[in-house]
Amino acid sequence: MKKRTIVGGYAFTWWFVTDVQRLSLEVMTLNPVCESVETAQGVPLTVTGVAQCKIMKADELLHTASEQFLGKSAYEIKTTILSTLEGHLRAILGTLSVEEIYKDRDQFATLVREVAAPDVGRMGIEILSFTIKDVYDNVQYLASLGKAQTAVVKRDADVGVAEANRDAGIREAECEKAAMDIKYNTDTKIEDNARLFQLQKANFDQEVNTAKAEAQLAYELQAAKIRQRIRNEEIQIEVVERRKQIEVEEQEVRRKEHELHSTVRLPAEAEHYKIGRVAEGKRTQTVNAAKAEAERIRLIGVAEAQALEAVGVSEAERMQMKAVVYKKYGEAAILNIALNALPKVRGLLLQGSC
């Protein structure tokens, strides 16, 4: 009897003659579960996975699948495939350690798929994908492993934090050192600039003090010259005053002589002539009178000489007092005397010009 397979199409059949059976080609989602399966270390694990399977469309494989599953429900087909997958999953779990299963689930799933694919392939079934959904145990092995791993991670984290703190401390120390170096260089430059400023200021102060000293010296020299000129003018004034005084004294002497001549000598001569003419007898009396008069004149001369000497002594004392005043009051006294003497000088100059 000839068999014919139609995929996704239609065909004519004879009623009551042709046997028609349908087989779903949709993807089937399976959830294999292996509970308390011991691993290579003897640790019981429970593993759940998800597998996507479908019947292959190739003619030969589709024919094989038809032979295997025609007349069966979808549940029966899934149960058959699921049993095959769980068997291979249990077998592979017994060859691996917990760490290999837990840490590398993708590799574990790939291994299960590669081992189970030939068996389900002989049934015309293709495994589209297989993934491990969950891995757990009832003896807290994974929890302990997680704690150990957590402790390792914490330890590594603490080490990392310590190293980070150490690196941060080193970096901070380096930054502080760089900052101190910069501060030291800055302070050095500031001190150098301050030292240069002080040197320049000292040079400037020296130049200023030199200029002040030169100005003060020039001022004192000019003041000395002015004082010298004032002293020369004063001496000239004193000379003029002395000359005028001498002239006055000479005039006074001439006046005295004239007065003496008028009041004494001429009357004496007249009297002598009178006496000579009147009587020779009175000659002795006249001579005595003349002697007396001469003595009187001598005494007058002595008195005048003493007066002149007193005037000279007074003039010397006046000059000495002037010198004391000049020494005591300095330029102010000299300037005051010069100012007081200017009117006299002016008067004398006017008299001289007249």
From TrEMBL:
Keywords: Coiled coil, Membrane. It comes from the Eukaryota. Gene3D superfamilies: Band 7 domain (3.30.479.30). SUPFAM superfamilies: Band 7/SPFH domain. It is found in: Membrane. One of its GO terms (biological process) is regulation of myoblast differentiation. Residues 65-247 form the Band domain. CDD domains: SPFH_flotillin. InterPro entries: Band_7, Band_7/SPFH_dom_sf, Flotillin_fam. One of its GO terms (cellular component) is cytoplasmic vesicle. Residues 223-259 form a coiled coil. GO terms for molecular function: protease binding. Its main location: membrane. PANTHER family: FLOTILLIN-1-RELATED, FLOTILLIN-RELATED. Belongs to the band 7/mec-2 family. Flotillin subfamily. This is Flotillin-2. The lineage of its organism: Eukaryota, Metazoa, Ecdysozoa, Arthropoda, Hexapoda.
